[in-house]
Amino acid sequence: MRKGIRVLYYITVIISALVGLWHFFVPWMFQWYDYLPTQYENLIVGIDYTNYCFSLLLFGLSLMLTFLGKKALAMNREVVYFYFFLTVVWIFRACLASFIEPWPLQPIPAAAIGQLVASDVLAVMMVVVSVCFVKELRCKRGQT
């Protein structure tokens, strides 16, 4: 079980980092600017700032947790709390995709369905790791 959680931990933070990195290129991949009139430069800049900040935070936090994986798996509370926060981010993303505001199926249905499934699967995997961390932290607290 311990090795499985270690593998799952690294899979989740690496996938999260890859999503953060991928998000830097999303505006060009999906031609966001084609849908916006050029006279709304403030809107374009605001969207860019939001996307770049989100991408940097998601990529940076995930990359940091990748490098700090040994400390997280050794139950370093501070690192584990950052993993909990990242888990909450992905749970929120999964809830958005599943219940609150699903991605429109048009113009690319496969992208919408793929994002829904991927965010839900990643959130579930992260919850599994987080639950194991909580159990381990409780056991560790009981021993001291």
Task: Give me the secondary-structure topology.
Elements: H1 2-23, H2 26-29, H3 41-67, H4 69-73, H5 77-100, H6 109-143
Helix pairs in contact: 1-3, 1-6, 3-5, 5-6
The N- to C-terminal Cα distance equals 23 Å
Tell me roughly what share of residues is in helical segments: over 70%
- Outline the biggest β-sheet: none
Flag low-confidence runs: none
Given the C-alpha coordinates, what overall shape results?
elongated
Number of strands: 0
Class by SSE composition: mainly alpha
Q: Proportion of β residues?
A: under 5%
Tally the helices: what do you get?
6
Mean pLDDT: 92
- Write the element-wise H/E pattern from the N-terminal end onward: HHHHHH
Gyration radius, in Å: 18 Å
How is this structure best described in words?
By secondary structure, the chain is mostly helical. It is 81% helix and 0% strand. Helix 1 (2-23) runs antiparallel to helix 3 (41-67), helix 1 (2-23) crosses helix 6 (109-143) and helix 5 runs antiparallel to helix 6. The model has no long low-confidence stretch (mean pLDDT 92).
Provide a short characterization of the protein structure.
With 144 residues, the chain is mainly alpha-helical.
